[in-house]
Design goal:
Largest sheet: 2 strands, antiparallel
Number of helices: 5
Order of helices and strands: HHHHEEH
Distance between the termini: 32 Å
Strand content: under 5%
Radius of gyration: 19 Å
Length: 140
């Protein structure tokens, strides 16, 4: 949620800025409170979660969904500033809770699991005429 809000706040002039700002503030506050409650200080990242090439790919993916990021050096700086406000606390909780922070991008193309079940596959024509893709075959 914080990543999404940071993107909206840094790279858009969207009408949802108010909601993104409020959600960012509430989410960051909750994250910091959790870190304090567990007594884990903020921790720097060993690895960059959003390298430049991934940000470029994210921009392309969002553009395909008709969500345009207005990239500039100023906006990149704003994103970096926003991330520094929450990522160190998320990193500390990551270690304490023994769980990984999600990547900004999926590792692989998502699979439409709604087309399959433990008892078999839906016929493509039964699913609004959408043909099954190779990715669906993984769950057969």
């Amino acid at each position: 949620m914080l990543d999404s809000c940071a993107l909206v706040l840094a790279y858009t002039d969207s009408v949802c800025h108010w909601q993104a700002r409020l959600t960012f503030a509430i989410s960051r506050h909750a994250l910091v409170d959790l870190a304090q409650a567990f007594g884990v200080p903020p921790r720097s990242a060993a690895v960059e979660r959003l390298p430049e090439r991934d940000l470029d790919q994210l921009e392309r993916l969002l553009a395909r969904a008709r969500f345009t990021l207005r990239r500039s050096s100023e906006a990149d700086g704003k994103l970096a500033h926003l991330r520094k406000m929450y990522e160190p606390f998320a990193r500390s909780l990551e270690g304490f809770l023994v769980m990984s922070l999600p990547a900004w991008l999926p590792a692989a193309e998502p699979v439409d699991n709604w087309r399959t079940s433990a008892w078999g596959r839906s016929a493509p024509e039964a699913v609004a005429g959408v043909p099954l893709s190779a990715a669906d075959e993984e769950h057969s």
